[in-house]
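Lecture 7, part 2: worked example. A protein chain together with uridine-diphosphate-N-acetylglucosamine.
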Amino acid sequence: MGQTQPSERIKYVVEGGHALKGEIEPSGNKNAALPIIAAALLTSERVELTNVPRIRDVEALVELIQTVGAKARWTGQNALEIEAREIRPADLDPVLCSRIRASILLAGPMLARCGEVTLPPPGGDVIGRRRVDTHFLVLQQLGAEVHLNGAYEFRTSGLAGADVFFDEPSVTATENALCAAVAATGTTILRNCASEPHVQDLARFLIAMGARIEGIGTNTMVIHGGTALSGTRHRIGPDHIEVGSLIGLAAVTRSEITIRNAGVEHLRSTLMNFERLGIRCRIEGDDLVVPAGQEMKIKPDFGGHVPKIEDQPWPAFPADTMSIAIVTATQCEGMVLLFEKMFESRMFFVDKLIAMGARIVLCDPHRAVVSGPAKLTGARVESPDIRAGMAMLIAAMCAEGTSTIENAQQIERGYERIDERLNALGARITRIPPRG
Ligand SMILES: CC(=O)N[C@H]1[C@@H](OP(=O)(O)OP(=O)(O)OC[C@H]2O[C@@H](n3ccc(=O)[nH]c3=O)[C@H](O)[C@@H]2O)O[C@H](CO)[C@@H](O)[C@@H]1O
Ligand SMILES: C=C(OP(=O)(O)O)C(=O)O
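Predicted complex, written out as structure tokens:
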């Protein structure tokens, strides 16, 4: 079922300096598809999902739900059917779990269906410490016992609603709590929880299954648990991080592109921060036009002070768009501080941009000052994580000469057929090996 083997090394050879033109549609949101696939285990009935991104992380989670007994079948390029008639808390492959962060998302649904699950530690992007404490905190309050024994052992004799306060608005912990709470008896209140578009999408999916959830899109959700959950059909929403990536890409390559069905209601903080870099987009219905000839002048704060782009929990600027903002800023006139608060090593990739000619001072693991514009030159670089990989692809596309991006399978964990889709707009990306 996997499109590429885990051990397969992929590289992109990119010829820089080509402007793009045309229309593109974002894929479904990876971080919505993952909890929704896990939540399909909550019912024994058939769930039909469309607009599922066909990416490595999704393929890995599909393999994991098959291990516990679910039947999963791709019925189209982006259509996935799941039927979890009989589920058992089988041993999950530690290597597969360590490849994706989302393996932890099986905790809530498996507790609800089987009363137990043992999960090897999750993986995901290597961008700093990936804490799981919030997952334990919230699931314990909903009636689970958690033991650390190399793997994480979750067990419950019955989930019960509770008034839960999150120590931080963790995205995947909120998703686990939602799945546990819909199956718990009584009412649950989740306070200080996450509210990202993918959390909202999961909540809507659960409602379509029969759950009762209030407060979607806010940091307090109320769940009236214990309702019977049935099969349903659901379309995964567009990936707002991919939209942010496309905006940055269009701006630095001086291209005009139209992003169709961009999910504009989720783009306010993204658009606001690109405007700080002198990049303005036009909203036309649910499409987003990135016009050519952007000003690309960083707007100082009032009084001429250096402005700041910082990530924060939703609805503020998403952490996953930070690497894209950094590479985009290298092509803008002026100076800006980029402040990443969530992960200790997400910014380390800037040394690769510096090697290409970018003017960046990494002040500490969380803050970088970018001064632009800088002429970038093609180089051989390696992608450490999904978003840094995309940032390097963007850099390579606006650089003079040819670049090679090694470890591009990282990019493909999060972006579907990105080489093909960008080449259709005029990019020159050669994937090695070619797609089979
Ligand atoms: C599969 C999935 O959905 N992955 C996303 C999810 O990961 P994930 O759910 O793993 O990330 P969390 O939301 O739990 O937290 C991420 C990190 O940020 C820190 N933290 C969190 C909240 C906060 O207000 N302040 C803060 O500093 C945490 O300590 C942690 O180190 O959310 C992250 C933050 O949006 C994204 O980068 C990931 O793409
Ligand atoms: C950090 C990311 O993903 P994950 O949490 O799956 O590692 C990301 O999508 O940028």
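The two ends are 13 Å apart (CA to CA). The chain has two domains: 11-27+238-432, 30-235. Keep this in mind for problem set question 3.
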